[in-house]
Design goal:
The chain has 7 helices and 8 strands, in the order ββααβαβαβαβααββ. It is an alpha/beta fold. The protein has a single domain, classed as Thiolase/Chalcone synthase (Peroxisomal Thiolase, Chain A, domain 1, 3-Layer(aba) Sandwich). It has a 6-stranded mixed sheet with strand order 5-4-6-7-1-8, with helices on both faces. It has a two-stranded antiparallel ribbon with strand order 2-3. The protein is elongated, with a radius of gyration of 19 Å. The mean pLDDT is 94.
Length: 222
């Protein structure tokens, strides 16, 4: 079994950082009313800034696949090896892709214009990124692949726009559930990517992956 190293990482955060007091200017106020629980949520999560791939008119500035692509390109540019034509495995995780089909990894593969290779899409909300990097880790560890890219990208703001709730009559005469409001003011948009190789880089810092342990407890819940 081969050793596996993260030899470079990249990120993409869309637009300028958005302060807490601006959040509802981007997501909108449901029924024209500000959230009663927003301040409590923000005080608890301690997050100071968000990044949104939508503007104040709630128009998308990027697709989820474009954000993933920008993170992957950043990771490859930061790598000291010229890997663009040597990457032989791509694993991508997200909660929700841009289309029902094809798979999200296919969308990202096409957007990046990386060479023909094996790809894998992972769908599992917060766990999807770790599922993707474990897949890439095992591919390199087994010797099956020599340069793998793992990426996670999320675009939750488009799901939390006020118009989506206003279109549901049940939310017009009562507040939305706290759990939903919590996610509206917790999550933001962006992507991250990592390059995995069987040898550390001869320049800069490389991180050796000893193990990745993923478990699902979905069987314990409805």
């Amino acid at each position: 079994m081969k050793s596996v190293y993260i030899t470079s990482i990249g990120k993409f955060l869309p637009g300028a950082p958005i302060a807490n007091e601006e959040i509802e200017e981007y997501l909108g106020k449901i029924g024209g009313k500000g959230s009663k629980s927003m301040r409590r949520i923000l005080e608890q999560n301690k997050i100071k800034y968000r990044y949104y791939a939508i503007d104040k008119d709630q128009k998308s500035l990027y697709s989820n696949a474009e954000m993933a692509t920008n993170a992957i390109r950043d990771a490859l540019e930061r790598n000291h090896d010229d890997l663009f034509n040597q990457v032989d495995f791509l694993a991508v995780g997200t909660t929700q892709g841009d289309l029902l089909v094809p798979g999200f990894a296919s969308m990202v593969h096409a957007e990046t214009s990386l060479p023909v290779m094996e790809i894998a899409s992972h769908h599992g909300v917060c766990g999807s990124g770790m599922q993707a990097i474990k897949n890439a880790f095992l591919q390199v560890q087994s010797g099956e692949k020599k340069a793998a890219v793992s990426c996670a990208s999320e675009f939750p703001s488009r799901v939390f726009k006020h118009t989506r709730f206003e279109a549901q009559a049940k939310f017009m005469d009562r507040p939305i559930p706290f759990d939903t409001d919590f996610l509206r003011f917790m999550l933001s948009d962006g992507a991250g990517a990592a390059v995995l190789q069987p040898e550390p880089s001869d320049q800069g810092l490389s991180l050796k992956i000893e193990w990745i342990d993923n478990k699902s407890y979905a069987n314990l819940y409805d």
